[in-house]
Input
Amino acid sequence: MTADEMRNVGFPWSKELVGRTFASTGATVAATRLVLTHGCGIAANVAGGTHHAFRDRGEGFCVFNDIAVAATVALKEFQLTRILVLDLDVHQGNGTAAIFQDEPRVVTFDMHGAGNYPWRSRMTNTYDIGLADGCKDAEYLAVLSERLPLLHATHQPQLIFFQAGVDPLEADSFGRLSLTRAGLNQRNNMVYSYALEHNIPLVITMGGGYTRPPDATIEAHTDVYRTAAYRVHAWAHEAEQRNGQQ
Output
C-alpha cells in the first residue's frame, strides 16, 4: 500500500497489521458460515466491524470491510436473497453503504450521530437514521424499537449482521451521543430478542469505542458478547424444554 493509502486508513503498515486484518475478516466469515450451517443462533467475532472500508480502499482505521466480505460469502455460498446489516456504531458505515448500494439483496440500516464522522465520504444506506448530539437512552431505544418490526415486516431477513459499536456511550471521546451502559445493554438485548424470536441467524461484530480511560469501553464491549452468550444459552434451554414437551 502507498503512503497516501495508509494515511487514509490511519495505521502504519506492518506485517502484524496484515495478519490481524486477514484474521479479523476471516473470523466474521467463519461466524457467518457457522450460523448459516446451523440455520439459526448467534455467532460473534470479537473484532471486525470495519465498516469504513470501501471496495477499493481502506478508511478510518478499517482496511477490509469484513461484514461486506462475509455477506458476499453468504450470497454466493448459501444463495441467500435477503440480508440485513444492522449498524449501530455511532459513525455511519459509509464503506458498507457504498459496497451494497446497487445490491438489492443486502439491506443496510444505520443509526449514527448525524454530526459525526464521516463528513466528506458519507454515503447513503438503505436506511439512515441520523441522531442529534446528546441523544439519550429513551430516544435512541424508542427509534430502534419502532424500526426493527418495520424492517422485519418489509424485508424478512434470512441473516443479520450486527455491528455493535459501543461509542454511543456518553463517556466516549468521539461519540457525542449520551447513552448509558444500561441503555446499550437494552439495545443489544433488543437486537438479540428480534433475531432469536424470529429464528434469524445473527452475526455480531465489534465496533468503535473510545473512552479515556478505556474501562467503560471494555465493559460495554464485554456486555455485547456476554449478554449474547447468556441469551443463546437461555434460548437453547427453552428450545430443549419445548421439544421435550412434544
Observations:
- The helical segments are 3-9, 15-38, 66-77, 94-99, 137-155, 181-197, 215-245.
- The longest strand covers residues 106-113.
- The mean pLDDT is 95.
- The first helix runs from residue 3 to 9.
